[in-house]
Structures are given as structure tokens and as C-alpha cells.
Description:
Elements (H helix, E strand, L loop, with lengths): L7 H9 L18 H8 L2 E6 L1 H6 L1 H10 L2 E4 L5 H4 L9 H12 L3 E8 L6 H4 L5 H18 L6 E6 L13 H6 L3 H12 L4 E6 L7 H15 L6 E4 L2 E3 L8 H9 L4 E12 L4 H19 L4 E6 L9 H4 L3 E2 L12 H14 L1
This protein binds ligand 9MR.
Amino acid sequence: MRRALVPAAVVVAVLAAGCGTTDSHGGAPNAGGPLRGLAQRAGIAIGTAVDAGALSRDDGYRAELPREFSSVTPENAMKWAALEPERGKPDWAGADALVDFAGAHRMRVRGHTLVWYSQNPDWLTGGNFSRAELVGLLRAHIAAVVGRYRGRVGTWDVVNEPIADSGSGLRDSIWSQVIGPDYIATALRAARAADPQAKLFINETAADGIGPKSDALYALVKGLLAGHVPLDGVGFQMHAELAHGLVPGVRRNFRRFAALGLEVNVTEADVAVKLPATAADRGRQGEIYREMLDDCLAVRACRSFTVWGFTDRYSWIPTGEPGFGAATLLDDNLDPKPAYDAVARALRDDAR
Ligand code: 9MR
């Protein structure tokens, strides 16, 4: 076992409750599971993005979710456009339902996300606000959202995807353009003030290995820490595509961020496959998931591994990347794919 975070009595109780060789899906035997018990033994959280619509109406989905996962991230329900489609008229229904569900099943919540270039309401992006006005709106938004879930959302992706894809500076957004680079520190400080106990993260895409983009992220984070801006960790999304596999240098990258004293999390893992997916594709996909998880398990500061949706029934990939799909651990029928077995095996091997 890698970490002694879990008291032996808890491990025994979890094992007795049915992890190990139990097949949780009622189908063919798999490599063990549920993932939740295996992850607990390995000393990490295992999470998934959650589709608010599926959570409200799909009983199979609702049953599978707390059995397999110890952490949830709202896929869209906490984005600004979802929370405040009309100015001053917040709609908490989807986010509340998820936080309540997580509480009832003793799952952690990763709040996602407080400031991003995308999925902002039109009134905000089209409002022609001055710098001072936008700073005020950002602070008020963060105070309201983080304050509402204080003590119930343990971790926040405060800032999402701040770095330009080229790695040359910050990504263009209403925030970087109107407020300037300071928007990041402003957001982190507002989040800390609203819930001093919550862990605060910057979450980035396509910065998993070593390269210009992760170098820029590293420089940003180092600067924030030097300026005593509150920051507890960095999330690496790990969206991957079957044909390309993983980028090189993931562990080295995780380790340099960890060496700054930060937690490192995998926050949005999936492996998109060009459709139709063959049996060989599914096998290779399992290997890529395993490499991702092994990269996390190899780095002590990596304490949470989240997949971006756990079933192909609701994955964002077919709409987000037309022609691709089959990206998750369970198929359309919620049956485990080789990727599920690979993740279970990686957890089980680490927990031994
Ligand atoms: O999975 C989300 C999808 O349903 C939305 O339509 C999309 C809008 O941009 O956002 C997706 O989630 C993104 C996440 O919030 C941030 N990282 C990239 C994810 C995939 O696009």
C-alpha cells in the first residue's frame, strides 16, 4: 500500500462490503471493483464528472455513481451560465441536487468552475463592463457560489484553462482582456475568503506533459506562490485520444508542480476513440487509462483521479468531437469495458 491514510478497520469494512472480486455490474466477471473501495485502499479519491440531467432521471446512472466513485465534479451545473443565466436570478437547482446527492452518499465534491473563458452568461460577456465592474462581479459571484457550498464542496477548480494553447501567456478571455492577469489572484483570494477550508486549484487542459504550455502554467503558478496568493493544487485534465496516446513527460511534469508544495490532481481523464471502436481499440484504450492512473499513483502529491464522465451513454465526446466517442469506462449499457478493468487493476496493484 502506498499511503497509510486509511485505518485498517475501514479497509476491512470496505472489503467486507463487497469490493475485491465482486462484479458490481451483474455481467461478466471483471478485474475487481467497485473502483471506490479499491481507490480507498490505494489512498486516492476516484472521481467522475456528473451530468445533471442523467442524475435527475436515470436510475441506473444514479445507482452506479456512488458505488464506483468517491468524488463528483459537476460537468456543467456550476458554470456561471448555468448558475446565473439571467443577471441577479440565480438557479441553484442542478448544483444543489448534485451536492445533496454527494452528501447523502458520502462523496466529495469538486466544484467546477468559478472563472473560465467559456460558458459564461450572455449578460456578462455582452455587458461592456468596465474593469472595476467586472472585478466586482467576479468577486460577488465567487462569494455567492463558494459561500453557498462552504463546508460541502471541499475543492474548487477556481480558475479553468488560463493559459493560451501556444503557451505564450494567458488565454484571451473577457477576464484577461478587461481585468488583466490579476484576475487569477483576485479569483483565488475571493475563493479563500468565502471558504478558508476549501482546497483551491487551477485546472488546465493540454498541459499534462512537459512543453511550452505546461512551462507557462508552471511560471504562472510559481509567481502566484511567490506573491502569497492562496493556491493548493493544480489539476491536469488529461483528455486523450486513442491514436496519440499520452504525451511524454507526465510524471516529470507532475513532480515539478508537486515540488512547489502543491497537490496535483487528474481532473478530466477520458480517451476519445475514432468511431466505430473495434475490440483492439477498446484494449488499447484500457492501456492508456492505466498509464494515466499509474502516472498519478506514482506521484505522492497526486491524491485524486477524476474521469470526465463514466459511461458512454452521456459522454461529451460525440458532440464535442464529432466522429469520436466510446471514451469512458462503461459502455452505453453501463457495462464495464476493458478500460474499467484496467483502472481497477491499476488501483488493485497499487493497493496491494
Ligand atoms: O463536458 C462539458 C460539455 O458538456 C460542455 O458542452 C463543454 C462546454 O465547453 O464543456 C465540457 O467540459 C469541459 C470542462 O468544463 C473543462 N475542460 C474541457 C471539458 C470538455 O470540453
